[in-house]
Design brief:
Structural class of chain B: mainly alpha
Helix content of chain A: over 70%
Largest sheet of chain B: 2 strands, antiparallel
Shape of chain A: globular
Number of domains of chain A: 1
Strand content of chain B: under 5%
Strand order of the largest sheet of chain A: 1-2
Distance between the termini of chain B: 41 Å
Number of helices of chain A: 11
Number of strands of chain A: 2
Radius of gyration of chain A: 19 Å
Order of helices and strands of chain B: HHHHHHHEEEHHHHEHHHH
Order of helices and strands of chain A: HHHHEEHHHHHHH
Oligomer: heterodimer
Shape of chain B: globular
């Protein structure tokens, strides 16, 4: 039984990361109808910046804050330089434009941090917590805690603040939002900044439990995309639900069937959900994309 | 000047003939063997990309999984040649049959999706193929790949990598282009274009959209598999990552970069991505950044890709010389098919 618990814990951990990436993708997608293939890069940059900043002797809290703020800045630059010129382009062009940006980000990260895998020390010591037979690394609490915190903050932001409601309005109907005086451009810019910040925070909390290289973002960005598709692209929350589900299925599949088939299981799950419920598991039945 | 010739010049048909003449003569113009091999690779990948152009440019279906079908071609050919010592043509035939069956199944499942959903579903197919190849070690050699694939041969006559394979592959590409260029004069071509324009409207006009979409999907898959079969004999080695997720993304990128819906544009896209690493390899460190910037600038500022840029420049020059009217939507191979798809 403890083996299963161990799998669930590992699934929730990676699932939380997928959820954060999926949430970031979902925010951008809903506001701008862009699937940002460079979303994984925000995570890489958050992690790499944190590793460098703590390496230079900054206290942990300041390093996290600075890494998140810097990455949010990158998100803003990204939106201004890359998304605005392509604003009126087709789906394919926008998809490939963000792919191109992700390649540039990887190139810069490669020059800045080299090709070697890097890691950060654990936030609260290396000694794991034991619950019965189950061993839990302290970093896991950080990862899951960050997901819960971000989910709560997002709920507050999108339901209780004017800026958040404006973004939701733009997601619903861009033209109508513009008509009632909402600055659509600003909303899109805010969405990119927020999305980059969420990605960077996810990167910062996983830096101690994984090795990060300049090109780590690709697969994790893709998993975020799957998470969003599983949960449903039409909702900000789709990515969170889909992410946790994806992490759990992957971990249980890897543990109970074979670790070799971990990625295979994730993508087969995606195909099944797309076949049965193309609009995602959160969708009301009968609604088609 | 005769009106017909004027029109033909304006539309740039002679560019195509010129390109063919250059491609036939180029090995005798003192270029290196490496250059010829890169051209061969361009032609081989070009076959898959032409299929992708049919799917994306003509029918308007965004796929990110073409390398999955390339993998079927490459591994079927590779395994039959290495493990069973069958001649390459058998490999191609078996691979094509297998591809028709698999692409029918996959197509039935994913083609009711649209846009991003279709893109990620096809990408998932490609990743699943890659994972299956990695994990069935006995058959495929696993992650370290399948080595010792013989040269391509036809009826006992060897077609080694180099000049012979070069002529064979550019010949094939030419045949495919000739088949496609008058697509609008047949019913199926017009149906595909109608679907890419407006699927609902096409269905209302009595086009069986799901069948025609499936047909385009299977056709593109077969071309990708053919490309894979030739690729394995060209490389004489195959590993899962060569026909994996990244390869899938590259095929789509090359098609869009060249200019979808024009046939010759995507071929230029393949050429650019095949030759670019060679040109910028002196800047090792900056190679990724340059690749990304070239891709970004081309796709964002010239949404019709390289072909759109060429057409624009070419018609500007022609206009100056002959004082001809510009063909607003035309590429050199213009049959109304060269409009880009906005979905």
């Amino acid at each position: 039984m403890s083996a299963v618990w161990q799998m669930i814990i590992s699934g929730v951990t990676s699932g939380s990361i997928y959820a954060l990436v999926g949430l970031g993708l979902g925010i951008i997608y809903n506001v701008s109808k862009v699937i940002n293939l460079a979303q994984g890069e925000f995570l890489t940059w958050g992690a790499l910046l944190l590793i460098s900043l703590t390496g230079w002797g900054l206290p942990l809290g300041a390093a996290i804050a600075l890494a998140v703020i810097m990455t949010a800045g990158i998100g803003i630059i990204f939106e201004r330089l890359a998304i605005r010129p392509a604003w009126k382009s087709s789906t394919t062009v926008l998809l490939i434009a963000t792919l191109a940006v992700s390649i540039v980000f990887k190139g810069i990260a490669m020059i800045g941090w080299g090709k070697d895998p890097l890691s950060a020390p654990s936030f609260s010591g290396e000694e794991p917590v034991r619950v019965g037979q189950t061993v839990i690394a302290t970093q896991v609490f950080w990862v899951v805690g960050v997901l819960i915190l971000i989910a709560a903050l997002s709920w507050y932001f999108f339901n209780r603040t004017l800026a958040g409601k404006a973004i939701l309005a733009v997601s619903e109907n861009r033209d109508a939002a513009a008509l009632v005086g909402i600055d659509v451009r600003l909303s899109v810019l805010t969405a990119f900044a927020l999305s980059a910040a969420v990605g960077a925070l996810a990167g910062a909390v996983i830096a101690p439990i994984t090795f990060v290289t300049y090109d780590s973002g690709t697969m994790i960005g893709l998993k975020g995309f799957i998470a969003l598709t599983l949960g449903g692209m039409g909702s900000i929350w789709g990515g969170i639900i889909g992410g946790v589900l994806l992490g759990l299925v992957e971990a249980l599949g890897a543990g109970l069937i074979s670790a070799q088939y971990k990625d295979l299981i994730a993508f087969v799950l995606l195909i099944i959900v797309l076949y049965a419920k193309p609009a995602g598991i959160l969708s009301v039945s009968g609604k088609r994309v | 000047m005769d009106e017909r010739i004027r029109k033909s010049i304006s539309r740039g048909a002679w560019w195509g003939y010129l390109a063919v003449v250059i491609l036939v003569l180029i090995p005798y113009l003192g270029v290196s063997k490496h250059f010829i091999n890169l051209l061969t690779l361009t032609a081989i990948l070009g076959i898959a990309v032409l299929g992708m152009d049919l799917l994306m440019g003509f029918t308007g279906l965004l796929s990110l999984g073409q390398a999955g079908f390339m993998a079927i071609g490459a591994y079927t050919s590779g395994i039959l040649a290495v493990r069973y010592e069958l001649p390459p043509l058998y490999g191609i035939l078996v691979a094509q049959a297998l591809t028709v069956v698999i692409s029918l199944m996959i197509g039935k499942a994913v083609l009711r999706l649209k846009g991003y959903h279709l893109a990620i579903a096809t990408l998932a197919f490609s990743v699943i193929m890659e994972q299956l190849l990695i994990n069935s070690r006995e058959l495929t050699g696993g992650p370290s790949g399948l080595a010792g694939v013989p040269f391509f041969s036809v009826g006992g006559l060897s077609v080694p990598t180099g000049l012979p394979l070069y002529y064979l592959t550019i010949g094939l590409v030419l045949i495919i282009i000739l088949l496609f260029r008058n697509l609008t004069s047949v019913r199926v071509g017009r149906a595909w274009l109608a679907i890419s324009g407006d699927e609902t409207a096409a269905a209302m006009l009595g086009v069986n959209t799901s069948n025609y979409k499936l047909l385009a999907f299977v056709f593109a898959a077969c071309l990708a598999a053919l490309s894979g079969s030739l690729y394995v004999h060209y490389m004489r080695f195959i590993s899962p990552d060569m026909v994996g997720m990244q390869a899938s993304i590259n095929i789509t990128v090359m098609t869009a970069l060249g200019g979808q819906g024009t046939l010759w544009g995507p071929l230029l896209g393949v050429g650019l991505l095949t030759f670019l690493p060679d040109f910028v390899s002196f800047t090792q460190q900056f190679q990724l950044i340059i690749n990304g910037l070239v891709l970004f600038v081309t796709i964002v500022f010239f949404p019709k890709g390289i072909s759109g840029l060429f057409t624009y420049v070419y018609q500007w020059i022609i206009q100056r010389i002959f004082r001809l009217q510009r063909y607003p939507e035309g590429g050199p191979i213009d049959n109304g098919a060269s409009h880009s798809v906005h979905k």
